[in-house]
Write a structure and sequence with these properties.
The complex is a heterodimer of chains A (120) and B (115). Chain A is mostly beta strands. Chain A has strands at residues 3-5, 10-14, 19-21, 24-26, 33-39, 46-52, 60-61, 64-69, 74-79, 88-95, 109-110, 114-119. In chain A, the strands form three sheets. In chain A, strands 2, 5, 6, 10, 11 and 12 form a six-stranded mixed beta sheet that branches. In chain A, strand 7 (60-61) and strand 8 form a beta hairpin. Chain B is mainly beta. Chain B has one domain: Immunoglobulins (Immunoglobulin-like, Sandwich), CATH 2.60.40.10. In chain B, 0% of the residues lie in helices and 48% in strands. Chain B is built from no helices and eleven strands. In chain B, strands 2, 4, 5, 6, 9, 10 and 11 form a seven-stranded mixed beta sheet that branches. A four-stranded antiparallel beta sheet of chain B has the order 1-3-8-7, with no helix packed on it. In chain B, a hairpin with a 6-residue loop joins strand 5 and strand 6 (56-57). Classes of the chains: A mainly beta (120), B mainly beta (115). Chains A and B meet through strand 5 and strand 10 of A and strand 4, strand 5 and strand 9 of B.
Chain lengths: 120, 115
Protein backbone atom coordinates (compact mmCIF):
# COMPACT_ATOMS: atom_id res chain seq x y z
CA UNK A 1 0.00 0.00 0.00
CA UNK A 2 1.13 3.50 -0.76
CA UNK A 3 1.06 5.56 2.39
CA UNK A 4 2.60 8.65 3.92
CA UNK A 5 2.94 8.97 7.68
CA UNK A 6 3.54 12.21 9.53
CA UNK A 7 3.95 11.21 13.16
CA UNK A 8 3.81 14.70 14.66
CA UNK A 9 0.26 16.10 14.54
CA UNK A 10 1.38 19.39 16.10
CA UNK A 11 4.67 21.14 16.75
CA UNK A 12 5.75 24.52 17.99
CA UNK A 13 8.99 26.46 17.70
CA UNK A 14 10.29 29.81 18.86
CA UNK A 15 10.88 32.46 16.26
CA UNK A 16 14.40 32.31 14.78
CA UNK A 17 14.96 28.72 15.90
CA UNK A 18 15.16 25.55 13.83
CA UNK A 19 12.50 22.86 13.61
CA UNK A 20 12.36 19.49 11.84
CA UNK A 21 9.15 17.87 10.64
CA UNK A 22 9.16 14.10 10.11
CA UNK A 23 7.74 12.10 7.23
CA UNK A 24 7.96 8.45 6.27
CA UNK A 25 6.39 6.87 3.23
CA UNK A 26 5.84 3.50 1.69
CA UNK A 27 6.03 2.57 -1.98
CA UNK A 28 7.37 -0.44 -3.83
CA UNK A 29 8.58 1.71 -6.72
CA UNK A 30 12.20 2.82 -6.98
CA UNK A 31 11.54 6.09 -8.78
CA UNK A 32 9.23 8.74 -7.39
CA UNK A 33 9.01 12.37 -6.34
CA UNK A 34 8.66 13.75 -2.84
CA UNK A 35 7.12 17.06 -1.84
CA UNK A 36 6.43 19.26 1.12
CA UNK A 37 3.43 21.56 0.84
CA UNK A 38 2.51 24.38 3.20
CA UNK A 39 -1.12 25.25 3.90
CA UNK A 40 -1.58 28.53 5.80
CA UNK A 41 -4.96 29.58 7.25
CA UNK A 42 -5.94 30.85 3.79
CA UNK A 43 -6.05 27.14 2.77
CA UNK A 44 -3.92 27.72 -0.32
CA UNK A 45 -1.58 24.77 -0.99
CA UNK A 46 1.93 26.17 -1.49
CA UNK A 47 4.83 24.06 -2.68
CA UNK A 48 7.77 24.37 -0.28
CA UNK A 49 10.30 21.94 -1.69
CA UNK A 50 10.57 18.90 -3.95
CA UNK A 51 13.01 16.00 -4.24
CA UNK A 52 13.56 13.42 -6.94
CA UNK A 53 14.19 9.98 -5.48
CA UNK A 54 17.00 9.24 -7.94
CA UNK A 55 18.99 12.23 -6.65
CA UNK A 56 21.16 11.59 -3.62
CA UNK A 57 21.72 15.27 -2.89
CA UNK A 58 19.20 16.75 -0.48
CA UNK A 59 17.10 19.58 -1.87
CA UNK A 60 17.30 23.07 -0.35
CA UNK A 61 15.21 26.20 -0.87
CA UNK A 62 16.45 29.17 1.15
CA UNK A 63 15.57 28.40 4.81
CA UNK A 64 14.01 25.04 3.93
CA UNK A 65 15.96 21.83 3.44
CA UNK A 66 15.22 18.13 3.47
CA UNK A 67 16.92 15.05 4.82
CA UNK A 68 16.11 12.32 2.32
CA UNK A 69 16.95 8.78 3.40
CA UNK A 70 15.82 6.51 0.59
CA UNK A 71 16.60 3.19 2.26
CA UNK A 72 14.68 4.21 5.35
CA UNK A 73 11.92 5.84 3.24
CA UNK A 74 12.22 8.98 5.27
CA UNK A 75 11.84 12.58 4.07
CA UNK A 76 12.08 15.15 6.85
CA UNK A 77 11.79 18.92 6.44
CA UNK A 78 14.06 21.32 8.31
CA UNK A 79 13.04 24.94 8.68
CA UNK A 80 15.86 27.23 9.79
CA UNK A 81 15.45 30.69 11.29
CA UNK A 82 11.71 30.12 11.76
CA UNK A 83 9.47 33.09 11.03
CA UNK A 84 5.94 33.90 12.18
CA UNK A 85 4.80 33.48 8.57
CA UNK A 86 5.86 29.82 8.68
CA UNK A 87 2.88 29.07 10.92
CA UNK A 88 0.79 26.62 8.86
CA UNK A 89 -0.11 23.01 8.23
CA UNK A 90 2.67 21.15 6.46
CA UNK A 91 1.90 18.16 4.27
CA UNK A 92 4.35 15.58 3.02
CA UNK A 93 3.42 13.87 -0.26
CA UNK A 94 4.84 11.72 -3.03
CA UNK A 95 3.95 10.83 -6.60
CA UNK A 96 5.17 8.37 -9.18
CA UNK A 97 6.57 9.34 -12.59
CA UNK A 98 4.01 9.85 -15.29
CA UNK A 99 3.28 6.92 -17.62
CA UNK A 100 5.66 4.76 -15.60
CA UNK A 101 3.24 3.30 -13.14
CA UNK A 102 0.10 1.24 -13.62
CA UNK A 103 -1.94 3.18 -11.12
CA UNK A 104 -3.13 6.74 -11.04
CA UNK A 105 -1.25 9.09 -13.27
CA UNK A 106 0.82 11.59 -11.37
CA UNK A 107 -1.51 12.10 -8.44
CA UNK A 108 -0.14 12.93 -5.01
CA UNK A 109 -0.38 10.66 -1.97
CA UNK A 110 -0.59 12.88 1.12
CA UNK A 111 0.14 12.47 4.80
CA UNK A 112 -2.30 13.85 7.37
CA UNK A 113 -0.19 16.89 8.06
CA UNK A 114 1.72 18.56 10.89
CA UNK A 115 0.39 21.78 12.36
CA UNK A 116 3.36 24.07 13.00
CA UNK A 117 3.08 27.10 15.26
CA UNK A 118 5.88 29.64 15.35
CA UNK A 119 5.84 31.61 18.60
CA UNK A 120 7.25 35.12 19.03
CA UNK B 1 -1.19 34.16 -15.70
CA UNK B 2 -3.94 33.37 -13.21
CA UNK B 3 -2.65 29.81 -12.73
CA UNK B 4 -5.39 27.52 -11.41
CA UNK B 5 -8.71 29.10 -10.46
CA UNK B 6 -11.78 27.55 -8.86
CA UNK B 7 -15.40 28.65 -8.87
CA UNK B 8 -17.20 29.11 -6.49
CA UNK B 9 -15.09 29.80 -3.38
CA UNK B 10 -17.84 28.78 -0.97
CA UNK B 11 -21.24 27.16 -1.33
CA UNK B 12 -24.00 25.87 0.94
CA UNK B 13 -26.21 23.10 -0.40
CA UNK B 14 -29.16 21.21 0.95
CA UNK B 15 -29.11 17.43 0.90
CA UNK B 16 -30.18 16.17 -2.52
CA UNK B 17 -29.29 19.32 -4.43
CA UNK B 18 -26.85 19.25 -7.30
CA UNK B 19 -24.00 21.54 -8.23
CA UNK B 20 -20.91 21.80 -10.41
CA UNK B 21 -17.50 23.02 -9.33
CA UNK B 22 -15.39 24.59 -12.05
CA UNK B 23 -11.62 24.42 -12.28
CA UNK B 24 -9.77 26.40 -14.92
CA UNK B 25 -6.04 26.59 -15.68
CA UNK B 26 -4.25 28.84 -18.13
CA UNK B 27 -0.91 27.01 -18.17
CA UNK B 28 -1.78 24.59 -21.00
CA UNK B 29 -1.40 21.67 -18.60
CA UNK B 30 -2.37 18.17 -19.72
CA UNK B 31 -3.18 16.59 -16.37
CA UNK B 32 -5.82 17.81 -13.96
CA UNK B 33 -6.99 16.49 -10.59
CA UNK B 34 -9.77 16.92 -8.09
CA UNK B 35 -9.01 16.30 -4.40
CA UNK B 36 -11.03 16.65 -1.24
CA UNK B 37 -9.68 17.63 2.16
CA UNK B 38 -11.47 16.68 5.36
CA UNK B 39 -10.53 17.79 8.91
CA UNK B 40 -7.40 16.08 10.18
CA UNK B 41 -6.73 14.54 6.81
CA UNK B 42 -4.48 15.16 3.89
CA UNK B 43 -5.92 15.51 0.43
CA UNK B 44 -7.52 12.49 -1.23
CA UNK B 45 -7.94 12.04 -4.97
CA UNK B 46 -11.50 12.01 -6.31
CA UNK B 47 -11.06 11.96 -10.09
CA UNK B 48 -8.40 12.97 -12.54
CA UNK B 49 -7.84 13.58 -16.25
CA UNK B 50 -4.77 12.91 -18.37
CA UNK B 51 -5.95 15.05 -21.27
CA UNK B 52 -8.91 16.67 -22.96
CA UNK B 53 -11.82 14.27 -23.23
CA UNK B 54 -10.43 11.79 -20.69
CA UNK B 55 -11.36 11.13 -17.07
CA UNK B 56 -10.55 8.42 -14.53
CA UNK B 57 -11.50 7.51 -10.97
CA UNK B 58 -9.29 8.19 -8.00
CA UNK B 59 -9.40 6.97 -4.42
CA UNK B 60 -12.82 8.36 -3.41
CA UNK B 61 -14.95 8.76 -6.58
CA UNK B 62 -18.38 7.74 -5.28
CA UNK B 63 -21.03 10.45 -5.52
CA UNK B 64 -19.05 12.56 -7.99
CA UNK B 65 -18.82 12.88 -11.75
CA UNK B 66 -16.34 14.83 -13.85
CA UNK B 67 -15.93 16.12 -17.36
CA UNK B 68 -13.06 17.63 -19.34
CA UNK B 69 -14.54 18.89 -22.58
CA UNK B 70 -11.89 21.59 -22.94
CA UNK B 71 -8.23 21.22 -22.03
CA UNK B 72 -8.26 24.20 -19.71
CA UNK B 73 -11.38 23.22 -17.74
CA UNK B 74 -12.12 20.33 -15.38
CA UNK B 75 -15.61 20.15 -13.90
CA UNK B 76 -16.62 18.26 -10.76
CA UNK B 77 -20.31 17.47 -10.36
CA UNK B 78 -22.36 16.40 -7.40
CA UNK B 79 -25.67 14.98 -8.65
CA UNK B 80 -27.31 14.55 -5.24
CA UNK B 81 -25.33 16.15 -2.45
CA UNK B 82 -24.98 14.37 0.90
CA UNK B 83 -23.69 15.72 4.24
CA UNK B 84 -20.67 13.38 3.87
CA UNK B 85 -19.61 15.52 0.93
CA UNK B 86 -19.07 18.54 3.17
CA UNK B 87 -15.41 19.23 2.54
CA UNK B 88 -12.88 21.54 0.96
CA UNK B 89 -12.27 20.70 -2.69
CA UNK B 90 -9.00 21.40 -4.44
CA UNK B 91 -8.21 21.30 -8.10
CA UNK B 92 -4.65 20.84 -9.32
CA UNK B 93 -2.81 20.49 -12.60
CA UNK B 94 0.56 19.38 -13.91
CA UNK B 95 2.19 19.96 -17.25
CA UNK B 96 3.26 16.39 -17.92
CA UNK B 97 6.25 17.53 -19.96
CA UNK B 98 9.56 19.27 -19.38
CA UNK B 99 11.22 20.30 -16.18
CA UNK B 100 9.19 19.79 -13.00
CA UNK B 101 6.52 18.06 -15.05
CA UNK B 102 5.18 16.25 -11.97
CA UNK B 103 4.89 19.33 -9.76
CA UNK B 104 1.25 20.03 -8.98
CA UNK B 105 -0.15 23.55 -9.01
CA UNK B 106 -3.20 23.96 -6.82
CA UNK B 107 -6.25 26.18 -7.00
CA UNK B 108 -7.39 28.15 -3.92
CA UNK B 109 -10.02 25.58 -2.93
CA UNK B 110 -13.82 25.52 -2.72
CA UNK B 111 -15.47 25.10 0.65
CA UNK B 112 -18.70 23.14 0.39
CA UNK B 113 -21.20 22.72 3.19
CA UNK B 114 -24.05 20.26 2.72
CA UNK B 115 -26.88 20.60 5.23
Amino acid sequence: AQTVTQSQPEMSVQEAETVTLSCTYDTSESNYYLFWYKQPPSRQMILVIRQEAYKQQNATENRFSVNFQKAAKSFSLKISDSQLGDTAMYFCAFSHPLMNYGGSQGNLIFGKGTKLSVKP
Amino acid sequence: NAGVTQTPKFRVLKTGQSMTLLCAQDMNHEYMYWYRQDPGMGLRLIHYSVGEGTTAKGEVPDGYNVSRLKKQNFLLGLESAAPSQTSVYFCASISGTGTFQETQYFGPGTRLLVL
